[in-house]
Amino acid sequence: MQLLQPVRVAENPGTPTHILLQLAKQPVENKINNVPTVRETVIKNPHFPARERHRLLLAMEEEEEIANAHQLMAHSADSPYALAQVLEKGDRNAKLTAARSHKTPIQVLQQLAKDADETIRAGVAGNSNLPLSSLLELTQDSSHSVRAGLARKRSHKQTSVQVLQRLAHDESAQIRAQVAANTDSPEELLRMLANDSNKEVWQALVRNPNTPVDVLEFLGVEKGVVNPWNSKTPANALAKAVKNTLTMDFRFRDKALDELLKPQNSQMPANILAQLASYKTSWIRSSVLGFMVMHPLQAVSVADLYHFSKSLLQIILPLLPALCPPAVHV
């Protein structure tokens, strides 16, 4: 929104000439979603003086040539002079190119990790060649986005345990949640985060496939936080989730129940299925039926049948011919 106001002033035909001249002297801006910059807009204003328009066009062409030269230098990892020029005079794009390149020398990466621009620091933090010492320094970075990038699991590299240990104590719950969701986080760290006071952290833990079953049980039964899509979520945690859901406002209850029944690898207890088989909403009963079709061995066992209610048997019996087709005699 801060950018739009000067742009509107620059394009307004009624803007006085001295204001247009001031806008033309603004620092070079980075384009956002191809939105024209203030200088690009002021050039098109019919009341912008022709001589100043010519000067500004020449200056912008020169700046573009310099930026292109810096980009070329950023790709020249074997040239100390070129990289020194990028560090000293390069624009954000040139520095980002160097920060992300695996050919950039380590000492240059370390310098970029201390750049004043948080975008550059965030970019270099994702470079697998950046030494651990620099990564640990970045865990104390003032920028939330830099620390969040460190905590987030990256597909191309293993997250350092030391980095995760530091960020697990970050002041931001969002950062701690990123650590909780990271599949590189060791078990002892996941157990520690189970004692966090923030629900966002708990929700991240129950999504993590590496979270121990006893932690999932604790969060589900004691905290009421469950992820049915995690195949390790124990039956008693799922049962507690259904019990809690049944007490919800009717406007949200049915959808929440349906979400609990959707996962195909869930350990939903058979007695809970029996309870839901007589639920008043037809599409929830259909979801129970669909769950049983996907889990015939789990939902339709001899032990379960013994405890099932009459309402559940009424659903199971019509299914038996499909589940157990008669033998074909030749």
Protein described:
This protein is mainly α and 330 residues long. 62% of the residues lie in helices and 0% in strands. It contains 22 helices and no strands. The N and C termini lie far apart (78 Å).
What are the defining features of this structure?
330 residues; mainly alpha; 0% strand; elongated
Question: What is the structure about, briefly put?
Answer:
The chain is mainly α. It has helices at residues 4-11, 17-24, 38-43, 50-74, 80-89, 92-100, 106-112, 118-125, 132-138, 144-151, 161-167, 173-181, 187-193, 199-207, 213-221, 235-245, 250-261, 270-276, 282-294, 296-299, 302-307, 310-323. The N and C termini lie far apart (78 Å).
Helix share, percent: 55-70%
CA-to-CA gap between the ends? 78 Å
Count of helix runs: 22
Number of beta-strand segments: 0
Report the principal-axis shape.
Answer: elongated
Which stretches are low in confidence, meaning pLDDT under 50 for 5 or more residues running? Answer: 299-309
Radius of gyration using CA atoms only? 30 Å
Largest sheet properties: none
Structural class: mainly alpha
State which percent range the strand residues make up.
under 5%
In N-to-C order, the SSE pattern is HHHHHHHHHHHHHHHHHHHHHH
Mean pLDDT: 80
Present the secondary structure layout.
Blueprint: H1 4-11, H2 17-24, H3 38-43, H4 50-74, H5 80-89, H6 92-100, H7 106-112, H8 118-125, H9 132-138, H10 144-151, H11 161-167, H12 173-181, H13 187-193, H14 199-207, H15 213-221, H16 235-245, H17 250-261, H18 270-276, H19 282-294, H20 296-299, H21 302-307, H22 310-323
Helix pairs in contact: 4-5, 4-6, 6-8, 8-10, 10-12, 12-14, 15-16, 16-17, 17-19
